[in-house]
């Protein structure tokens, strides 16, 4: 009887691994909805903040699977800052996130096109525009003065944002207000400038949210969404 029980147990485990070749890494199939995807990312962020990452989707099988096709569950638009890599912040792995990174999470035509590609062709249900505490690009604008080289283009872009211009620069404690205003601008820009994004939102197949990461504890807070 014990041998029979052991044999059945091995069959069950083997079958589960065949159905989910990345089971050993903690991977589960990407949720099909924006709500499910967002919950999945925030669960990963909670593991990150608690220093309990599972580092999913890094196995040999996962690498082989995504080499043929990709099905990311979210687009993350965030800053190029070395302290905010989305795959670590949300504890995700290969093929899980479609990431766009620029200083100050600024979006131009190329970035917009990349996001539209993920939404239109990869059917990603969620876009997260994420700013972060002590953002250097926002601080460069906040402190004023002449910016050298092409850095000026970054500062000028931030300075032109209506959400930024509506705030008063009256103290260092307000820097985060500008970071959050920049995120709010990104969400509005993305929805307002892209008919593809608007159509997907209207169809109920896409959600766009703004988020903020606290560098001190790594926690991501959702600020707004459609």
Kindly list the characteristics that best describe this protein.
226 residues; alpha/beta; 5-stranded mixed sheet; 10 helices; 13% strand; globular
- How many strand units? 5
- Residue stretches low in confidence (pLDDT < 50, at least 5 long) are 1-28
Compute the average pLDDT.
87
Number of discrete helical segments: 10
Physical arrangement of strands within the biggest beta sheet: 2-1-3-4-5
Label the structural class.
alpha/beta
Largest sheet: 5 strands, mixed
Distance between the termini: 58 Å
Strand content: 5-15%
The coarse overall form would be globular
Radius of gyration: 20 Å
- Helix and strand element order: HHHEHEHEHHHHHEE
Helix content: 40-55%
TL;DR of this structure?
The protein is α/β, with parallel strands linked by helices and 226 residues long. The protein has helices at residues 2-19, 34-49, 60-66, 86-89, 109-121, 136-143, 151-159, 162-165, 175-193, 195-202; strands spanning 74-78, 97-101, 126-132, 207-213, 220-225.
Describe the overall structure:
The protein has 226 residues and is α/β, with parallel strands linked by helices. Helices cover 47% and strands 13% of the residues. It has 10 helices and 5 strands. Strands 2-1-3-4-5 form a 5-stranded mixed β-sheet, sandwiched between helices. Strand 4 and strand 5 form a beta hairpin. Helix 6 packs across helix 7.
Write the layout of secondary structure elements.
Blueprint: H1 2-19, H2 34-49, H3 60-66, E1 74-78, H4 86-89, E2 97-101, H5 109-121, E3 126-132, H6 136-143, H7 151-159, H8 162-165, H9 175-193, H10 195-202, E4 207-213, E5 220-225
Parallel strand pairs: 1-2, 1-3, 3-4
Antiparallel strand pairs: 4-5
């Amino acid at each position: 009887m014990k041998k029979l029980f052991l044999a059945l147990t091995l069959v069950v485990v083997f079958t589960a691994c065949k159905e989910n070749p990345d089971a050993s890494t903690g991977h589960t199939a990407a949720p099909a909805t924006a709500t499910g995807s967002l919950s999945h990312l925030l669960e990963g962020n909670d593991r990150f903040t608690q220093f309990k990452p599972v580092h999913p989707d890094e196995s040999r099988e996962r690498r082989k699977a995504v080499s043929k096709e990709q099905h990311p569950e979210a687009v993350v638009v965030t800053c190029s800052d070395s302290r905010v890599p989305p795959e670590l912040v949300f504890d995700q792995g290969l093929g899980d996130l479609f990431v766009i990174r620029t200083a100050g999470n600024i979006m131009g035509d190329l970035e917009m096109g990349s996001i539209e590609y993920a939404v239109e062709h990869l059917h990603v249900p969620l876009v997260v525009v994420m700013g972060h505490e002590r953002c250097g690009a926002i601080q460069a604008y906040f402190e004023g003065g002449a910016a050298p080289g092409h850095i000026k283009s970054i500062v000028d872009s931030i300075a032109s944002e209506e959400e930024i211009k509506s705030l008063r620069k009256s103290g260092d404690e307000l820097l985060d207000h500008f970071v959050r205003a920049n995120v709010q601008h990104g969400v509005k820009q993305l929805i307002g400038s892209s008919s593809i994004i608007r159509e997907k939102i209207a169809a109920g197949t896409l959600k766009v949210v703004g988020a903020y990461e606290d560098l001190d504890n790594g926690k991501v807070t959702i600020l707004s969404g459609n």
